[in-house]
Amino acid sequence: MALPWQPLLEWWFGSGSNTETELTTSQIAKAKGKLWFGKKHSQDDEAQQRFAAQVKQALAGELKDWAQSPLGWLALVLLLDQLPRMIFRDTPKAFAGDARAQTLVEHGLTLGFDQQLSSIQRTFIYLVLEHSENLAHQNQAVTLLRALLDEQPAIDRAVIASNLDFAIRHQRVIARFHRFPHRNAILGRPSTAEELAFLQERGSRF
Description:
There is one protein chain. This protein is an all-alpha fold. It is 64% helix and 0% strand. It has ten helices and no strands. The longest helix is centred in the C-terminal third of the chain and has 21 residues, at 157-177.
Protein backbone atom coordinates (compact mmCIF):
# COMPACT_ATOMS: atom_id res chain seq x y z
CA MET A 1 0.00 0.00 0.00
CA ALA A 2 1.34 3.42 -0.98
CA LEU A 3 2.04 5.79 1.85
CA PRO A 4 -0.22 8.88 1.81
CA TRP A 5 2.63 11.28 1.07
CA GLN A 6 4.14 9.24 -1.78
CA PRO A 7 2.21 10.90 -4.65
CA LEU A 8 3.34 14.33 -3.54
CA LEU A 9 6.98 13.35 -3.19
CA GLU A 10 6.97 11.63 -6.58
CA TRP A 11 5.39 14.70 -8.18
CA TRP A 12 7.87 17.05 -6.54
CA PHE A 13 11.09 15.05 -6.86
CA GLY A 14 10.25 12.47 -9.53
CA SER A 15 9.83 8.75 -9.13
CA GLY A 16 13.41 8.22 -10.30
CA SER A 17 14.73 9.30 -6.91
CA ASN A 18 13.12 6.22 -5.38
CA THR A 19 14.31 3.60 -7.87
CA GLU A 20 17.25 1.24 -7.63
CA THR A 21 19.16 3.43 -10.08
CA GLU A 22 19.02 6.59 -8.02
CA LEU A 23 19.26 9.87 -9.89
CA THR A 24 21.86 12.43 -8.92
CA THR A 25 20.94 15.74 -7.32
CA SER A 26 21.77 17.56 -10.54
CA GLN A 27 19.61 15.20 -12.63
CA ILE A 28 16.60 15.70 -10.36
CA ALA A 29 17.09 19.47 -10.32
CA LYS A 30 17.28 19.56 -14.12
CA ALA A 31 14.10 17.51 -14.45
CA LYS A 32 12.08 19.33 -11.79
CA GLY A 33 13.53 22.84 -11.63
CA LYS A 34 10.74 24.37 -13.75
CA LEU A 35 8.13 22.90 -11.42
CA TRP A 36 9.89 24.25 -8.36
CA PHE A 37 10.65 27.74 -9.61
CA GLY A 38 8.79 28.17 -12.90
CA LYS A 39 5.72 30.09 -11.68
CA LYS A 40 3.42 28.71 -14.39
CA HIS A 41 -0.37 28.82 -14.14
CA SER A 42 -0.59 25.25 -15.43
CA GLN A 43 1.64 24.00 -12.61
CA ASP A 44 -0.26 25.99 -10.01
CA ASP A 45 -3.50 24.53 -11.35
CA GLU A 46 -2.10 21.01 -11.12
CA ALA A 47 -1.02 21.62 -7.52
CA GLN A 48 -4.54 22.86 -6.78
CA GLN A 49 -6.24 19.89 -8.42
CA ARG A 50 -4.02 17.21 -6.93
CA PHE A 51 -3.09 18.46 -3.48
CA ALA A 52 -5.43 21.26 -2.37
CA ALA A 53 -7.29 18.97 0.03
CA GLN A 54 -4.07 17.92 1.75
CA VAL A 55 -2.85 21.51 1.90
CA LYS A 56 -6.12 22.49 3.58
CA GLN A 57 -5.65 19.70 6.13
CA ALA A 58 -2.05 20.70 6.81
CA LEU A 59 -2.96 24.36 7.26
CA ALA A 60 -5.65 23.29 9.72
CA GLY A 61 -3.04 21.52 11.84
CA GLU A 62 -3.95 18.05 10.67
CA LEU A 63 -1.71 15.31 9.22
CA LYS A 64 0.63 15.63 12.21
CA ASP A 65 1.20 11.88 12.15
CA TRP A 66 3.10 12.37 8.88
CA ALA A 67 5.89 14.03 10.85
CA GLN A 68 6.76 10.77 12.61
CA SER A 69 9.06 9.70 9.75
CA PRO A 70 11.59 11.70 7.69
CA LEU A 71 9.76 11.36 4.36
CA GLY A 72 6.37 12.10 5.87
CA TRP A 73 7.92 15.11 7.63
CA LEU A 74 9.33 16.33 4.31
CA ALA A 75 5.96 15.96 2.57
CA LEU A 76 4.14 17.82 5.34
CA VAL A 77 6.70 20.62 5.11
CA LEU A 78 6.03 20.86 1.37
CA LEU A 79 2.29 21.07 2.00
CA LEU A 80 2.83 23.96 4.39
CA ASP A 81 5.61 25.85 2.66
CA GLN A 82 5.82 25.18 -1.09
CA LEU A 83 2.30 24.22 -2.13
CA PRO A 84 0.53 27.28 -0.65
CA ARG A 85 2.92 29.47 -2.65
CA MET A 86 1.58 27.80 -5.79
CA ILE A 87 -2.09 27.34 -4.93
CA PHE A 88 -2.51 30.79 -3.34
CA ARG A 89 0.12 32.65 -5.33
CA ASP A 90 0.21 36.45 -4.86
CA THR A 91 -2.26 36.36 -1.97
CA PRO A 92 -1.65 36.54 1.80
CA LYS A 93 -2.63 32.88 2.10
CA ALA A 94 0.53 31.95 0.17
CA PHE A 95 2.38 32.44 3.47
CA ALA A 96 -0.30 30.94 5.72
CA GLY A 97 1.67 27.79 6.43
CA ASP A 98 5.02 29.41 7.11
CA ALA A 99 4.87 29.49 10.91
CA ARG A 100 3.76 25.85 11.12
CA ALA A 101 6.42 24.82 8.61
CA GLN A 102 9.16 26.60 10.56
CA THR A 103 8.15 24.92 13.81
CA LEU A 104 7.96 21.56 12.06
CA VAL A 105 11.39 22.01 10.52
CA GLU A 106 12.96 23.02 13.81
CA HIS A 107 11.52 19.92 15.50
CA GLY A 108 12.64 17.58 12.71
CA LEU A 109 16.13 19.03 12.72
CA THR A 110 16.49 18.24 16.42
CA LEU A 111 15.63 14.62 15.57
CA GLY A 112 18.14 14.53 12.72
CA PHE A 113 15.45 13.82 10.15
CA ASP A 114 17.20 15.94 7.52
CA GLN A 115 20.23 13.65 7.70
CA GLN A 116 18.03 10.78 6.53
CA LEU A 117 16.94 12.57 3.35
CA SER A 118 18.67 12.97 0.01
CA SER A 119 20.60 16.16 -0.66
CA ILE A 120 17.95 17.68 -2.93
CA GLN A 121 15.23 16.85 -0.41
CA ARG A 122 17.22 18.56 2.31
CA THR A 123 17.34 21.79 0.32
CA PHE A 124 13.56 22.08 0.60
CA ILE A 125 13.75 21.64 4.35
CA TYR A 126 16.34 24.40 4.61
CA LEU A 127 14.35 26.60 2.22
CA VAL A 128 11.67 26.91 4.90
CA LEU A 129 14.24 28.73 7.02
CA GLU A 130 15.07 31.00 4.07
CA HIS A 131 11.40 31.92 3.80
CA SER A 132 11.40 33.13 7.42
CA GLU A 133 11.61 36.81 8.26
CA ASN A 134 13.71 35.86 11.27
CA LEU A 135 17.45 36.47 10.97
CA ALA A 136 18.32 33.51 13.21
CA HIS A 137 16.51 31.22 10.75
CA GLN A 138 18.35 32.84 7.86
CA ASN A 139 21.70 32.30 9.54
CA GLN A 140 20.77 28.68 10.24
CA ALA A 141 19.82 28.10 6.59
CA VAL A 142 23.17 29.41 5.38
CA THR A 143 25.06 27.26 7.90
CA LEU A 144 23.14 24.11 6.94
CA LEU A 145 23.56 24.65 3.21
CA ARG A 146 27.29 25.31 3.58
CA ALA A 147 27.60 22.01 5.40
CA LEU A 148 25.52 20.28 2.73
CA LEU A 149 27.71 21.72 -0.02
CA ASP A 150 30.80 20.29 1.67
CA GLU A 151 29.26 16.81 1.43
CA GLN A 152 28.59 16.92 -2.32
CA PRO A 153 30.45 15.07 -5.06
CA ALA A 154 31.74 17.29 -7.85
CA ILE A 155 28.79 16.49 -10.15
CA ASP A 156 26.26 17.93 -7.68
CA ARG A 157 28.15 20.88 -6.22
CA ALA A 158 26.73 23.44 -8.65
CA VAL A 159 23.12 22.73 -7.63
CA ILE A 160 23.79 23.05 -3.92
CA ALA A 161 26.08 26.05 -4.47
CA SER A 162 23.20 27.80 -6.24
CA ASN A 163 20.94 27.05 -3.28
CA LEU A 164 23.55 28.46 -0.94
CA ASP A 165 23.86 31.61 -3.05
CA PHE A 166 20.12 32.22 -2.79
CA ALA A 167 20.24 31.57 0.95
CA ILE A 168 22.92 34.23 1.36
CA ARG A 169 20.83 36.67 -0.68
CA HIS A 170 17.80 35.99 1.52
CA GLN A 171 19.95 36.42 4.61
CA ARG A 172 21.21 39.82 3.44
CA VAL A 173 17.69 41.11 2.79
CA ILE A 174 16.47 40.12 6.25
CA ALA A 175 19.61 41.51 7.89
CA ARG A 176 18.97 44.82 6.14
CA PHE A 177 15.18 45.19 6.30
CA HIS A 178 14.10 42.58 8.91
CA ARG A 179 11.44 41.47 6.41
CA PHE A 180 11.05 40.75 2.69
CA PRO A 181 10.00 44.01 1.00
CA HIS A 182 8.52 42.18 -1.98
CA ARG A 183 5.86 40.73 0.32
CA ASN A 184 4.67 44.12 1.54
CA ALA A 185 2.11 44.77 -1.19
CA ILE A 186 0.61 41.29 -0.90
CA LEU A 187 0.39 41.46 2.90
CA GLY A 188 -0.87 45.05 2.98
CA ARG A 189 2.26 46.36 4.68
CA PRO A 190 3.42 49.90 3.87
CA SER A 191 6.89 50.03 2.34
CA THR A 192 9.57 52.47 3.37
CA ALA A 193 11.30 54.67 0.82
CA GLU A 194 14.41 52.51 1.16
CA GLU A 195 12.40 49.35 0.49
CA LEU A 196 10.72 50.88 -2.57
CA ALA A 197 14.11 51.83 -3.95
CA PHE A 198 15.41 48.34 -3.26
CA LEU A 199 12.49 46.78 -5.11
CA GLN A 200 13.57 48.58 -8.26
CA GLU A 201 16.86 46.69 -8.18
CA ARG A 202 17.37 43.55 -10.22
CA GLY A 203 17.11 40.40 -8.12
CA SER A 204 15.27 42.06 -5.25
CA ARG A 205 12.33 39.66 -5.50
CA PHE A 206 12.43 35.93 -4.85
